[in-house]
Every structure is written in structure tokens, then in C-alpha cells.
Amino acid sequence: MKEESKSSAAKSFTPPLGFKFAAVAAGVREAGAARRDLALVASEMPASGAGVLTVNRMRAAPVNRAAGLLPAAGIRAIVANSGNANALTGAAGIADDRAMAEAVGKALGVGAEAVVTASTGAIGVRLPIERITAAAPALVAALGDDVVGAAEAIRTTDLRTKVAFREFDIGGKTARFAAIAKGSGMIHPQMATMFCFIATDAKVAPEVLQAALAPAVEETFNTITVDGDMSTNDCVIALANGAAGGPLIERGSPSAAKLQAALTGICAELARAIAADGEGATKLLVVDVAGVPDRAVAGDLARAVAGGSLVKAGLFGGDPSWGRILAALGARIGARGLALDPAGVTLDIQGIRVFERGGVAAFDKDDLNGRMQKAEIAVRLDLGLGKESARALGCDLSYDYVKINAEYYGGPKQATARPAVGANRPLVVEALSYIRKFGGKRAVIKYGGAAMVDPALKRSFAEEVVLLQSAGLRPVIVHGGGPEITKTLEKMGRKSEFADGQRITGAEEVRVVEMVLTGRINTEIVGLINTLGGNAIGLSGKDGRLLMAHKLQPEPGKPDLGFVGEIEAVNASLLDLFLDKGYMPVISPVGFGVDGASYNINADVAAGEIAAACGAERLIFLTDVAGLLDEQGNLVSEIRAADLEARLGKTIKGGMHVKAQAVLHALASGVRAVHIVDGRAPHSVVAELFTDRGVGTLVT
Ligand code: ADP
Ligand code: MG
Fold first, then answer.
1. What is the average pLDDT score of the chain?
2. Is the pTM of this model over 0.70?
3. Which of 77, 278, 330, 401 is deepest in the core (most CB within 10 A)?
């Protein structure tokens, strides 16, 4: 599943020499479950091991074991499970943890003391150790290059898989680094429910590795806060096996500095990914505190602001929350009894000066409110009292955070009426297990209507497709652009004319269509998806001859539509290329004529043709009605193709007629099912596909 990685850095890098990765389904949470939940990072030769572990005094058994073990030479593997934290499990938990190390050690042919263990998931529940030891031989047999698979197996409530690769030169040799991480909730400075396992083929002694790792963690993972709750299980563990060759990295040498920089870079990338993927988070919060005499104090203040519940809740609501930010700062200074007078503090939010000289600055509220819609919120406080500064990373606090955590162990008592499948699982896990059915399958989504205009809906749509992609589905987005094109033409003093729902497209109009669709709308969608951690690539029908088209000939007695095109062929192998590499194509429906001309193609028709050509399992239309409506205007929640065809031109007209024809074409070409859903409500695609209560119309 390499191609499904969400990390910006998950390109096809070679893993470090002598390291292998694996993941299997051991059924940690539930016997027989198909989800992979046991991961292994193994070195073919003894490696130096170092670790930075949670300072929580109620540490889990594996963390205590790692604390006793590291730093050390001769380490061969890290084995980690998700689904159970093996924390607060007493003597039995310690024995289970040892048994896990022994089983993996045995399968690898090494001693238990060469195997570092790590566990994450529910607290206070005994590990199903027989299932884990039984899975150990298969885990070792699966060892290969699948870094991303191992990263997926350690996820809990994470929505995204977190992997990072680095390569650089140490002492004339290329050292490679591959790291996997997890973390989403219970995240607070001084490590949180997070793992990060780093493998490198650099040649370095355990103590030197430890000395480089500790400051790297301090500057990165220890600056994140999701919820202020420190976990019992965090650990960052690094293994260095020396397979890259070259001279040994000596303490205090220039190569030791390089090593530390590489580790810091890797940890920074993953720390950011963890903060952005905070449970229920919709925004990344970056807080800088400057003008403080002491760096550690600056860091402490930055974390206090980034962790303020009211600040976070306000940000979720799109509020600048400047009063709450200043209150959080003042509270921390007071509570810690710091000798700092914040009277001269300045506050900038999203680059706008909001507060100075003890009062509100004159700023443009609309401008700031607009900037609060961004996926990343920058807060900068300058106390003007010194030269030091520090940064903390956080996220907003959403309804979903409470939902995820209230339901983690079964939910509030009122929730017992929910269906048994979901009753004792977090919402996200329930959705993920549903989504698994679609793993690797292609789904074409026609994106249009209000979902493309309203800022909140745009964002929730982008979030949805990122979620679908990270869950293993392979979405292909085909977007329309109607209202934007009309608006742009209006600005140019041109009137839009339609015939049978199609735009009459002259030479000037087709230039505007292309400019708006490909130049503006497409890049905006791609930008938003990628900001949210997706992996989208923008394509117009001209790129790689994706949509070959010719002029649509007017029917007798009908007006000539100009540059309105009809698709002749879809270059599906171009889509294969991107889909197989884990990209999400976002397609603007501009057709490419053999004559070199651009053609305006109806996005519904394009979506139908593309779904048919690329072997999509599903085709989904987002529209501005509840779905297909019957003659009384009631939603038809399920209908067969033949029935749909019978209604064409009778109760189905206008824009829906075009859509229905595209639906029929796709179904006839092998698409399993088509959904028409209401794009005016957020998250309708996920609700339609992944819950029992479909929200739109299902056509089969
Ligand atoms: P989109 O932007 O999704 O392409 P369209 O306006 O082109 O939207 O198509 C949807 C429109 O089709 C509806 O707003 C409605 O006016 C019209 N329509 C005609 N018949 C039906 C029907 N049976 N069910 C739903 N919508 C219908
Ligand atoms: Mg339409």
C-alpha cells in the first residue's frame, strides 16, 4: 500500500540499508479483524538504539522496558502494536510485554533483549498476548520494504499515515533515514500518545545517537500540544545500524551535528503531521512567543497558549480569539509566578497586528475573518522583554474531538441504543472498518454546486476526499465550474447563453471556460486538498490527451453550441499512472481536439466517461438537491438503472437529465453503483458511502 501514504515526504525513497519493515493483522483489538495492527522494524545487523520516552509517571510496561534497555548496542528490532497500550496492567502486563519481545526475538533468531517493544491504544486492558505471539512468525516472514505498511499498522485514531524519509551525506557516505510515526490524541509536550521510530544506516555509537536524538525531540515533538493530556506510552526510538559504511560518527564532530540536524528535520516533519492530524482537528495552530529573556520560558508560554481550550474552541469556530490568547498568556505568567510584565505585548494573528500598547490595534476585521478560514493559523506574541523566542504547534478543538474520545471506550450511556457494530468503537474506527471494503478501489466524484462555492463546504469536501484517500480509496475528482464561468464572463461584459442546459460556447467563451476551470478552480481545489495532507494532482483534459474530444454536432433544428465538445476517448492509462503512485487526479473537463482546439465538456458527462474508462467501482455526483426526486419531490433513496431510464424526460429533466444519462452510461460500462448526494450538507460523501443510513440516491 506504499502509494497510499499521505506524508508529503513519502516519495519512493530507498529505505536505509539493512533495514526491513513489516506489518500484519494480529487481531489485537478484536480477534480475526483484518486491520494490520502489529508492525516491525528490523535491522539485519546489530544496531545502536536510543530512545526518548514519556515522563509520565504512570508509564506503560513497554516504555519501562525500553527505559531499562536504551541506549544500547546490539538492538535488532522494534515491534509495536496498536489497539492496546499495555498500560496500567500490572505484573501481567510486564510479563505480556516480555513475551512479545521473546516471540519476535525467537522468530528473528535473536535474544529478547535485542527487541524493543511499544504498544498504543486502550489503557488498562490486558494485551491479547497469545494472538500477538502467534502472529510473530508471519510478521517476520513479511519483512520487506513496506515502510508505509508499518506506519499504517501503528495508527489508532490517526487519520493520516505518517512517514518521513531523509538522505544525506555523512563523512562521504550517504546515510538514509526512514521514520514512521503515529499520534493524534493525548498529545502534549513532553511526549504524548505518539510513537516515532527512526531507522538509519548511519554508523554511530548508542550514546552519540542518544545525544543527537534528545535535543531533536525537545525541539520538535515536545512543542506539540493537541489536548494537554500526556500519555503513558510515548516513545521516540532511533536505531542506527551502520550499514551505510564510512567513518564512525564521533561525539562533537561535524558529522554528529549533521546527524542531529537530520534527526531534527525528520522529527519536525512528523511533529507537524501529528499536530495537523490532532483528533478532530480542522486547523493547525502555530504559536510563536518572542521577546522573552529565556528560551525555555518562551516555549512554556507558547505551549500554554497553543493548549488553551478556549483558544482552540474559538479557532474551530473561525474566531480570532485574541482576548483568549492574551488571557492564556497572562494566566501562565501569573500561575508560574514569572517576573515578566506583559503590558507591552504585541499580538499578530495571521500576520495582522491585533493588539499593541495595551489595547486593540486598528485592523480590518473582514480581512482577518477571511484569513481565519485558512487551514493553518499563525499566532505571534512579542513581549519585547528579551531576545529569545520559541514555537509551539497545536490544533483547534472541535466537536469531533469530544465525540472521538467520549466514544473511545463505549460512549456515554445514552449511546447504547446505537447499532452493535459501532457501540464500542470510536466513530473513526467504525468508519475506517467500513471504508476498508473499498481499499484500493477507484471512485470518481463529480464535484459541483454549492460544495464548490461555500468556503466551509469546500473545506469539508477537501477533508472528506483526504480521508477517503488516506483510508485507501482512490478518488478521482471531476469538477464543474458553471457559476464562476458565468461570473467571469459577466465581468467581461459578456452574457451567458444556454441551450438545453449547455452553454453556447464561442471562441472567446471557450478561452474563459479554460481559464476559469483549469487556471483557477482546478488549482484551488488541488491546493486545498494538498494543504490538508492529501496528494492531489491537477489535470485538464488536455494534459496527456486525457480527454480527446470533437465538436458536438447540433441536432437538426437545434442551435450550434460552438466549442461544446463530446468525448471521443479517455486516456485511462494516464490515470492509472497517477492512481498507482497514490495521487488523486483532479480533472477540469476541458476536452482536447485532434485539431488542437479546446472544448467545453459538461462535467457530469466527463465524470461518467472517466468512471467508465478507469474501471471505477463507484461514481458519486455532488449536487444541490437531496438526490433524485420523484414527482412529489420526495427523495428516491434507491433505484435500478432500468427504472431510472424509464423516468428520463418524464420526472427527470434539465441538469438531472444530463446526470442520469451519465449514470446509465457508467453503469452500463461496469461501474458497480452510482450515488447522487446533496453537496449542500457537509460530509455527505462519507455519510452516503460509509454509514448504513445513506443520505442520497443509490443507483445500481
Ligand atoms: P449540478 O450543478 O449538480 O450539475 P444541475 O442544476 O445541473 O446541478 O442539475 C440538478 C437539477 O436538475 C436540479 O436542481 C433540478 O432543478 C433538476 N431536476 C430535474 N428533474 C429532477 C429530478 N427528478 N430530481 C432531482 N432534480 C431534478
Ligand atoms: Mg449540471
1. 86
2. no
3. 278
